[in-house]
Amino acid sequence: MKVSTRGRYAIRFMLDLAMHNTGEPVRVRDIAARQEISDKYLEQVVATLNKAGYVRSVRGPQGGYLLAMKPEEYTMGMILRLTEGEMSPVACLAGPNNLCDRADNCTTLGFWKRLDKAISDVIDHTTLADLMEEEQARLVNNYVI
Asked: How far apart are CA 16 and CA 19, in angstroms?
């Protein structure tokens, strides 16, 4: 499994939006500049987040985007599944039922299930608020007088 730029940029966008939350909308252009991402490509990612209701758009000269929920309500799993689709490491574990004909005789199925659980545990238990704390700690540790 490899997370595409779409998924990575969605997380970076959401984190930047949360970190710069002053109650005023944040422009995509500003986030794109801070994150060194093409604003055209980021607009496409944001459209997906907006359509899903993860962000709220504000139109007009002072417009931009705001988070639709609190940072602790977003998990990385929510964002990645929205932008990437299924996060299972193998096709047979995608969806609620294992449709593989070899499931009863598959020696490796247990391994794939453990890997799938490990991935889900990390992405479904890491919130945007967790990343904000990590970013704040990084900024404090990198601050030199």
From this structure: 5
Q: Which domains does the chain show, CATH number per domain?
A: 5-142 (1.10.10.10)
Per DSSP, the three-state class of 103 is helix
Of all residues in the chain, what percent are helix, strand and coil, respectively (each to 5)? 60, 10, 35
Token pair for 62: 């002072």
Position of tokens 């990437």?
84
Task: Convert the pLDDT of each residue in 54-63 to its tens digit.
Answer: 999 999 888 9
If you count them, how many residues does the chain have? 145
Q: Is 82 strand, coil or helix?
A: helix
In sequence order, what DSSP letters do the residues of 14-78 get, joined into one string? HHHHHHT-SSS-B-HHHHHHHHT--HHHHHHHHHHHHHTTSEEEE-STT-EEEESS-GGG-BHHH
Q: Are 71 and 81 in contact (CB under 8 A)?
A: no
Q: Would you give the distance in Å from CA 134 to the centre of its chain?
A: 15
pTM assigned to the model: 0.89
From CA 29, how far away is CA 131, in angstroms rounded?
Answer: 22
Q: In angstroms, rounded to a whole number, what is the distance separating the alpha carbons of residues 112 and 115?
A: 5
SS3 58: strand
